[in-house]
Structure formats: structure tokens, C-alpha cells
Design a protein that fits this description.
- The protein is an alpha+beta fold.
- About 40% of the residues lie in helices and about 20% in strands.
- Strands 1-2-3 form a three-stranded antiparallel beta sheet, covered by helices on one side.
- The termini are close together.
């Protein structure tokens, strides 16, 4: 995991929940942690990490993840034991 991934991880766990995290940075972090990002129909993606899954839509027209998406990613990471 490089410094950009660590910065994204810290931003995900920051309170209050940020809505300025670029969604592709979240995807990059998941891949760096050994996860998989699978393209689905349209803007849908399925993220798998250590037996856990998260299905969501990529944000559009912007590129920043919505705050509820950041909270869902935080919950996913907490379930598998990843902390900042």
C-alpha cells in the first residue's frame, strides 16, 4: 500500500464523513488490499474483498463518492478488520 492509499484510508475513516473522496481512489485502495473491482451494467460495480462484497454505482456526473458510499466502504473495511 503506497502513501496515496494510506491517505485515502485515513479519509474514509475521518469524522465527519467526507464527500470529497474520488471514487477511483477507493477502487485503487481496494485493489491494493487484495480486493477485486468488477464492472457491471452501466455505472454499477461489485467490490469484493476477503469474502465480503459491496455493490454500488459509480458517482456521476461528478467523480467524488457520496458520503453514504464512504460510510458503506468504511463498514466493509471494519468488517474485514482494516483500520487506519
Amino acid at each position: 500500500m503506497n502513501s496515496k492509499h494510506r491517505k485515502t484510508l485515513r479519509a474514509i475513516f475521518a469524522k465527519p464523513t467526507s464527500s470529497s473522496i474520488v471514487f477511483s481512489n477507493i477502487e485503487s485502495l481496494i485493489v491494493a488490499l487484495g480486493g477485486e473491482v468488477v464492472e457491471r451494467e452501466g455505472s454499477r460495480v461489485k467490490i469484493s474483498l476477503r469474502g465480503e462484497q459491496w455493490r454500488c454505482h459509480r458517482p456521476h456526473p461528478g467523480k467524488e463518492a457520496k458520503s453514504y458510499q464512504v460510510e458503506e466502504v468504511r463498514e466493509l473495511l471494519e468488517r474485514i478488520g482494516v483500520l487506519p
